[in-house]
Specification:
This protein has 269 residues and is an alpha/beta fold. The chain has helices at residues 11-17, 33-49, 62-66, 79-88, 101-104, 108-116, 143-146, 168-176, 184-187, and strands at residues 2-6, 21-25, 53-59, 93-98, 121-127, 131-132, 138-139, 152-156, 160-161, 164-165, 191-197, 202-204, 214-222, 225-233, 240-242, 250-260. The strands form 4 sheets. Strands 1-4-3-2-5-8 form a 6-stranded parallel sheet, with helices on one face.
């Protein structure tokens, strides 16, 4: 898989190199069940058309740019992890578009012409609520028209769990509220963060979100083995403490399994 970081200065260069492809569109933070439905649908379309599969994502998160930084987005995974998962899903090209004020101001027709037609897209796949162009005016119902009729479109229906749309936002909300035990139903696995353990403290890698303050049942994994233990996220939301001695040094993955809730003591008067 080739990863291409797109911006205004190099767009023309990559347009010249582009070949016909099917493209999945979205932010894809966390690669939850909803995201996988979009990418798997695009994979099927690419196989049908016998063309490569591309994925287009955007960074930084559009909400951060559009609100001038007033909204802070808690990212669920770094690009390296996203790349590894997309590669396993059969993606050939991963475009990461630099989302800035100029990009946010593109008319829907300009986005379609420059970033889809210009990059060889013959079929676009996205979720039912994907939007593009200035003020999110573009949507999947008008994309074929915005592309001058050159791009076929597949709109993937909402993926739900017990009536709730599966989204990165609902995953972040559960994380920050400590409800890590609910995440496998949304992600397909427990939430995992990567960090370094230097023998004294955990150093979290960028672009992960820690669960909210509290005590958690976790698995600490590295190449040497796995340890089941408890970790406390302190009130500052960034510091971790472990109740047991950790028998290895270096890179660790923390698998967040369950929040430990203290039983309330009954008061008898």
């Amino acid at each position: 898989m080739e990863t291409i970081r797109l911006n205004r200065s190099n767009l023309a260069e990559w347009q010249k190199k582009a070949r016909p492809n099917v493209m999945a569109l979205g932010c894809f933070d966390g690669l939850h069940h909803g995201h996988c439905a979009v990418i798997n649908t695009a994979f099927q379309k690419a196989n049908e058309k016998q063309v490569p599969l591309a994925v287009m994502s955007f960074f930084p998160h559009p909400k951060t740019v559009i609100t001038n930084g007033k909204i802070h987005v808690h990212y669920l995974m770094p690009f390296a992890e996203k790349e590894a998962k997309l590669r396993k899903m059969g993606v050939d090209t991963f475009y990461i578009v630099e989302f800035d004020k100029d990009f946010a101001g593109l008319a829907p027709e300009q986005f379609a012409a420059q970033y889809l037609n210009g990059l060889g897209v013959v079929h676009a796949v996205a979720g039912f609520d994907f939007s593009y162009g200035a003020r999110g005016a573009g949507n999947m119902d008008r994309l074929k028209s915005d592309s001058g009729g050159r791009i076929d479109v597949t709109k993937v229906a909402k993926v739900e769990l017990r009536g709730e749309k599966i989204s990165s936002s609902c995953i972040r909300e559960r994380l920050l509220n400590g409800k890590v035990a609910e995440l496998p139903d949304l992600l397909g696995q427990f939430y995992v963060t990567q960090c370094e353990w230097n023998g004294e403290k955990f150093i979290l890698y960028p672009y992960y979100t820690l669960p909210g303050p509290g005590r958690y049942q976790v698995s600490l994994n590295n190449l040497s083995g796995s340890v089941q233990t408890e970790v406390t996220v302190m009130n500052d939301g960034t510091t971790l403490q472990c109740t047991d001695e950790i028998p290895f040094i270096g890179k660790l993955s923390i698998v967040w399994k369950k929040q430990i809730v203290e039983a309330r003591k009954l008061r008898i008067s």
